[in-house]
From TrEMBL:
UniProt keyword list: Carboxypeptidase, Cell outer membrane, Hydrolase, Membrane, Protease, Signal
Taxonomic lineage from the root: Bacteria, Pseudomonadati, Bacteroidota, Cytophagia, Cytophagales
UniProt cross-references to InterPro entries, sorted A to Z: Beta-barrel_TonB_sf, CarboxyPept-like_regulatory, OMP_b-brl_3
Cell compartments where the protein resides: Cell outer membrane
An MF annotation (GO) of this entry: carboxypeptidase activity
Domain of life, per lineage: Bacteria
Signal sequence interval, chain numbering: 1-20
Protein name: Carboxypeptidase family protein
């Protein structure tokens, strides 16, 4: 398959070479003002003089020069524009004796208010405004009824993976705003997957400064890649949205809809969905929220942080996190949400959202794992069935109030309620290298519970009359309460010299209550010469109460098991004073800081009459630098230190036997891990040529790293205990290069990456060094012909090698490969065809595992009703009926392959109705996507 894919790429590259040799010409010039000063980032637009449609465009460089290449028309209209200046227009013709037409200097005049003219101007596809790159959405064609995600895929420098995660100019987009306001909190996918592309006027990509930097006016060097979607005026005068319903084979169905009403002062949105086709678009934040937060996950595991080291008892999430492929298992999803943003006046603003989600996820799974031990290899096999049910209510409320020009308040409240119901049944075996059965186990584990969380913050800020002098404080309070019940039935049989059969029946009850409060305080003082001093102090205190009771079931009676039960109270106190000095110049800023972190942990194990006390002090320096070569080219260096402190769950010596063959016990002797982190990023985006280059290198060095030591007895019962080792090292480099091929309306993206990880592994008190090398990358080719054809070809290949010091013969090597082809065609004005083919290939040189999965999805649509606001769609999902999911991974001392059930072939008939087609009375005057002309009367 990969040879076919590479052959297709070679054919396209050959076409590029042939096309580049055709008789084409260029036009060049230099843009200046009337005083002869260069005008960088001026927009140069090339039009067809017959109808003023866009042919191509570019921008001037920092010295005002430009050159537009690969022109083939005999006659063109060139327009040169710059903000605040009158537009220059000239009719140009193909030169006879040369391939370059040199226009020389083009002097632009400043606009005046007494001009009476009627001009036809092209809307530039891209504009640079200081640190913001703005794309005109109408210049980038999408399929009818496409969402914002499809629009973003067509923007140069923007990448979206199969999960909907967004990268812009090589950096992950953390936030998507609608007209500068948050949409359903800070999950970008809720906006990109639910809003229609046709509602967007402009797409702005910017590096958003931190809230503290915006308040103080001091650039602290912190940036967050952000996309702001500016709506069309026509979509601010009424409701817009769409609704889709579909029915399919095997009783499959899908319902999805959204309704929006936006204005300059208010944004109101509703969205909902219900399906049994494994459709979902959730991020890691949603996953944690649906589970009731990290505290809830720990609670459900028995008041301990349950670390999955590959044993059959490793916890599986009720919501899967995609690995870039598809969701495994069979899932029923139901969700509803509403978002309300309102500006009451110039001083008071509100941001609020409510979201409800309910998931029922059934997974059947087979796992084959080869464990590498100094005394020989052990083969493990497990078959499991999981039924995970979860529901979650989440409410967010933010109120911003400006008391006056110097004082402001910001209140943030987050509340959520989560219910979980989880059943896991499994059977497993362990065999030696000769295939002899060493043990077998059957396990049934049921957990049910609910969790309530409330977190609130009050940010008080004061700006003094002296510029740069500010004072801010952020007061924090949180409450978390969880109640869980569960039972365990396990039957374990051991063979060999000491055969035995053990049966375990247990009931357990657990209640957790956590309070936390604290504050962050910051004072900034200008030192002169663009230098600033910031004094900071952070304080936190967490109070935690856990009451876990475990009972052995003997017949009809329950017998309290004290060794597995756990009742404890803990108080965790945290102080962190620090200072930062920053220097800001025109092109770069530098921030150097230091902090002292002091923590105190007091815990009491009531059942064991044992006290745990730990005091930790750490010195934490940091250094951050940003250097901006231009608006679209910058270099960033960051060094910081941090401390990962052991939690009370990791410190307490209490047994968790949720899986009797894999037992977890805490370690009261743990010390905090001290982490040094270095990162360097280089980012360049040539707006005129649409070439983006992003390179990064990351290094983590951890002292006193915390790892999970494994002690395996002769019956292969594994006891897992967290321990400190000397250090660990992780290094990662990646590169992303994207460039267009204008003659073929195409674009290439290439992204190699390299990962190196070195750490220590503890097995039966033997310390071993493990080195993991992962080399891979991705390549993507995109072809777009107006709004009619979109073609995408991509490949993602990963090669991982794991080496052990104790036995080089057990080194591991495997490959994961993904190839993808997607095609979209609009034809006969009212028809659309889409196709997607994925080829997944997994190969292990260690175990001779070799699995390939082809996935084919096809769909054809017919647009009906006025303005094509209705769409009838016939789609086929997984037409080759591949109803399994495959994954493989290598870890501490094993390599494993997992095969999971999945939905088979689904054929579905659906209908989509757009609710916004009649809002714009001018909508039908031009073809969709052809709105690159505007008539402007200037008086």
């Amino acid at each position: 398959m990969h040879k076919i894919f590479l052959a297709i790429l070679v054919i396209f590259l050959t076409c590029v070479q042939v096309s580049a040799q055709t008789n084409r010409w260029s036009v060049s010039g230099t843009v200046k003002d009337k005083d002869g000063k260069a005008l960088p980032s001026a927009t140069i637009t090339i039009l067809d003089p017959k109808d003023s449609t866009l042919v191509t465009f570019g921008v001037s460089n920092p010295t005002g020069n430009f050159e537009i290449k690969n022109l083939k028309e005999e006659e063109l209209l060139i327009q040169v524009s710059f903000v605040g200046f009158s537009t220059f227009s000239k009719l140009i013709q193909k030169p006879n004796a040369s391939v370059l037409m040199a226009l020389g200097e083009i002097a632009l005049n400043e606009k005046t208010a007494d001009l009476d003219e009627f001009t036809v101007e092209a809307i530039a596809p891209v504009t640079i405004k200081k640190d913001t790159i703005e794309f005109n959405a109408g210049s980038f064609k999408t399929m009818p009824n496409a969402n914002v995600e499809e629009l973003l895929k067509r923007l140069p420098g923007v990448e979206i993976d199969s999960e909907g995660n967004i990268k812009a100019q090589g950096e992950t987009v953390r936030r998507v705003l609608i007209d500068g306001k948050e949409f359903f909190g800070n999950d970008p996918k809720l906006a990109t997957k639910n809003l229609l592309a046709e509602a967007i006027d402009k797409v702005q990509i910017l590096d958003r400064r931190s809230e503290q930097s915006l308040f103080t006016g001091i650039d602290d060097g912190q940036r967050e890649k952000t996309i702001n979607l500016k709506l069309k005026d026509s979509h601010k005068r009424g409701y817009f949205g769409n609704v889709t319903g579909g029915i399919g084979t095997d009783d499959r169905y899908s319902l999805r809809g959204n309704l929006n009403k936006f204005s300059d002062k208010q944004q109101l949105s509703f969205l909902g969905m219900s399906n049994n086709t494994n459709e979902q678009g959730f991020s890691i934040d949603d996953y944690i929220n649906f589970q009731g937060g990290l505290q809830s996950i720990a609670s459900a595991a028995g008041g301990m942080v349950r670390i999955n080291v590959g044993g059959p008892g490793g916890a599986q999430p009720a919501i899967p996190l995609n690995n870039g492929q598809r969701i495994n298992g069979v899932m029923n999803s139901n969700a509803f949400g509403t978002n309300l943003n309102k500006d009451f006046n110039k001083k008071t603003q509100m941001r609020s959202s409510y979201f409800f989600n309910k998931l029922d996820h059934i997974i059947t799974q087979n796992t084959d794992r080869l464990n590498f031990f100094p005394n020989g290899d052990i083969g493990f096999n497990e078959n499991s069935y999981q039924d995970n049910l979860s529901s979650n209510h989440r409410l967010n409320l933010i109120i911003d109030h400006k008391i006056d020009s110097l004082n402001s308040l910001r209140s943030t409240t987050n509340g959520q309620y989560t219910f979980t119901d989880r059943l896991v049944n499994s059977t497993s075996t362990n065999r030696d290298g000769d295939g002899n059965l060493l043990n077998r186990g059957e396990r049934s584990n049921f957990t049910r519970g609910d969790n309530f969380q409330l977190n609130t913050e009050l940010l008080i800020r004061h700006r003094f009359s002296k510029p740069g002098r500010t004072l801010s404080s952020n007061l924090i309070f949180g409450y978390n309460e969880g109640d869980y019940v569960g039972n365990l039935y396990a039957e374990n049989e051991f063979f060999g010299s000491r055969p035995a059969l053990e049966i375990i029946r247990q009931d357990n009850f657990q209640r957790n209550i956590t309070y936390n409060y604290g504050g962050n305080f910051s004072y900034t003082e200008p030192l002169g010469g663009r230098k600033y001093l910031e004094l900071v102090y952070n304080f936190r205190q967490n109070l935690n109460e856990v009451d876990r009771e475990v009972y052995d079931v003997e017949g009809e009676n329950r017998v309290f098991n004290q060794s597995l039960s756990n009742k404890f109270n803990s108080v965790y106190t945290y102080h962190r004073p620090g200072a930062n000095i920053s220097y800001n110049s025109g092109k770069y800023n530098l921030v150097a800081g230091v902090a002292l972190q002091a923590t105190r942990l007091n815990g009491e194990l009531l059942l064991f009459d044992e006290i745990i006390k730990n005091n930790f002090e750490n010195f934490l320096p940091s250094l951050r630098m940003n250097y901006g070569f231009s608006n679209s080219k910058n270099l960033m260096f960051n060094y910081q230190t941090s401390v990962t402190e052991p939690s009370i769950e990791q410190l307490q010596p209490v047994i968790n036997n949720a899986d009797p063959l894999n037992i977890y016990v805490g370690n009261p002797e743990l010390r905090p891990a001290y982490v040094h982190s270095w990162r360097i990023n280089y980012n360049s985006f040539d707006v005129g040529r649409f070439i983006n280059l992003f390179a990064s290198a990351f290094l983590n060095f951890t002292e006193n790293a915390i790892v999970n030591s494994q002690n395996i007895d002769e019956r292969l019962v594994r006891t897992i205990t967290p321990m400190n080792v000397r250090n660990s090292l992780m290094a990662n480099t990646n590169l992303n290069l994207g460039f267009p091929i204008k003659p073929l309306n195409s674009r290439f993206n290439i992204g190699p990456n390299l990962l190196y990880n070195q750490g220590y592994n503890m097995i039966n008190d033997l310390e071993d060094i493990i080195r993991i090398k992962n080399f891979g990358g991705n390549i993507r080719y995109d072809y777009n012909w107006k709004e009619f054809v979109n073609l995408g070809l991509s490949a993602n290949i990963s090669r991982q090698e794991t080496a052990y010091d104790f036995s080089p013969l057990q080194n591991q090597l495997f490959f994961n490969q993904t190839y993808n082809a997607e095609l979209g065609v609009n034809f006969l004005k009212q028809y659309s065809f889409t196709g997607n083919f994925n080829y997944l290939k997994y190969n292990s040189r260690t175990t001779d595992f070799n699995e390939s999965i082809p996935l084919l999805n096809l769909a054809i649509s017919r647009f009906i009703l006025k303005s094509n606001k209705g769409e009838i769609r016939l789609s086929g999902q997984n037409l080759l009926n591949q109803n399994i999911g495959v994954s493989q991974r290598a870890d501490v001392n094993f390599i494993e392959q997992t095969v999971t059930n999945n939905l088979g072939r689904i054929v579905m008939l659906s209908f989509t109705y757009k609710l916004n087609s009649n809002l714009n009375p001018m909508n039908n005057l031009s073809r969709p996507g052809s709105g690159m002309r505007t008539f402007r009367m200037m008086n």
